[in-house]
Predict the structure.
Amino acid sequence: MLIPDPKTLMSEAAFRFVNESHKLLIGDRWLDAQSGATVDVIDPGTGRVIAKVPAADSADVDLAVAAAREAFDNGPWSRMTASARGKLIWQFADLIEANARSLAEVESLDTGRALYECQIVDVPGSVEMLRYMAGWASKINGETMNVAMPCDFHTYTVREAVGVVAIIVPWNYPLELAVWRMAPALAAGCTIILKPAEQTPLNAIRLGQLAQECGFPPGVINVVTGYGETAGAALSAHMDVDAISFTGSTETGRLIVKAAAGNMKRVFLELGGKSPAIVFADADLTAAIPGVAGSIFFSAGQVCTAGSRLLVHASIFDRVVAGVAEIAATMTLGHGLAAGTQLGPLVSSDQMDRVSGYLDAGRRDGVTIVTGGHRVGTEGYYMQPTVITNTSAQMSIYREEVFGPVLCAVPFDDDDMDRVAAMANDTVYGLHASIWTQNLRLAHMMARKVKAGNVCINTHNFFDPAFPMGGYKQSGWGRASGFQAIEHYTEVKGVVAKL
Ligand code: ADP
């Protein structure tokens, strides 16, 4: 595989940004970490260092939280009308849209993901979320109620912003996840400290620049780059942070919950998954086969909702597996920014070790690798899209979140819906699922039985700002989109007056 020089594939604006001296955004100032420490940012397509960003620690986090606190308690943001707040959020969307090309290029370079994905998903998805939440800003209302108490009381509720929100996002969708978490918090009137993953910090810094250009008052949006164990841990334990929004692994989610206990801050969690795609015998395979392949190979499987377990009726198992394997074997693997790339590299050498480790364990356990299974080249972190059969429910590759382009296919030969649902639900996760069938009754009955925050019928990986996204079981707490997301960033205050 020929790896091009990424410099030749980027617009001047993106190249200039990547080569800037990157800083933390605290209030209205751009600062280095007080310790002077930095984190190397690596292009996953080449394995080379492309930038350095500050490695913030608790001293920098204290400053960022103080700036967000001041902006929330005393700044113009909290006194602004909801309409003005909504307008600013809408303008933020416009600015992101105006910078779509360079944001997509930086995202592709930083994550390794194919540029077309960033162009069709990440940037428009960010813009739409901001526009959707901008509309909610002026529609966050309380209500009046009829109470049972005798005498004359006038009772009503108001919804108030929860306060200072820390947002910790992972490396797979750094731009879109940052924006998806920020948008409802901003609409509710909160102030924010955004911490991107250490592997992919660039677009969080760019978002900070655009937020300033947009005119958000100082301290409403702060950006702190650095490691999870230092900057992330300091944010999640901070006594002056009122709510935390964490997106990442279930293991780290557990640490966040513990750290949040200190001041009982509100916790939103969007965690791991091992999502089933269930293909029934009557499914339209011209849609199901590419749909299933897309659900696991998009973003090289580094998606929390990836359809990593394929459950197929035995009567069509061989056809479906062969169809998905053929798609896998013919995908163009390449640098995210290179023309024609369908599948980029994994994000990091750690992630390569993790995915390779699961594949090695699968081999030891005796699985059959139908296609893929190997790293490609030694430069960058390229992994072949992989389809596996002959797994059992006890194997780590079947049970645990691999977070790579690895699909485990399993037949079911039973038409009993409860038994198929039990197979689908045999996981600690409950984030996403898809059901492929032309039988409406079967589809909706299965949708009831599958324990997941989102169940898709004849599609997979459906996300929309209006559609509540989130997990059951160990996949998380709360919903990231729809009005449910706003509820998370507001407190309900009941007011009563004796008349
Ligand atoms: P991964 O293991 O795939 O890197 P994580 O869930 O650990 O995924 O990372 C997601 C985000 O959580 C990143 O921004 C990371 O810096 C942050 N993070 C990691 N460890 C901690 C921690 N102990 N406390 C707070 N944030 C953390």
Q: What stands out?
A: The chain has a mean pLDDT of 97. Residues 6-271+475-495 form a domain with the Aldehyde Dehydrogenase; Chain A, domain 1 fold (CATH 3.40.605.10). The first strand starts at residue 24 and ends at 26.
